[in-house]
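Give me the fold.
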Amino acid sequence: MQSPPLDAVTPAGSIADAYCIVRKGGKSAVETKDAIAALLQIVRVCDTAAADATAALTLKVCDFEDAILAATARREKAEQIITSNDRDFSQSPVPARSPADFLQQRENRQQSR
């Protein structure tokens, strides 16, 4: 049984990051583009706005790039941020969790249906 699409949003820059990670993992350019195309079928890409950068200045998130991500997530009304670096988002206005935790939560929801 195929899983339903994720209710997920990602900043455009994260798509570029995903591309680099997949390529560094040894996939060909064609395989990587196919993986990104599949990702784009299940997530909505949002733009980071100037207002997000300004809002990030007021957040208590230590890393400014993470603060911009947190501000964008807040503006997009995201329920959570999925990151392998969830510790750096402890002061984020949007809670963060690891990819493994997110996938486990998603699996639990599917099993309870």
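Residues 1-47 form one domain.
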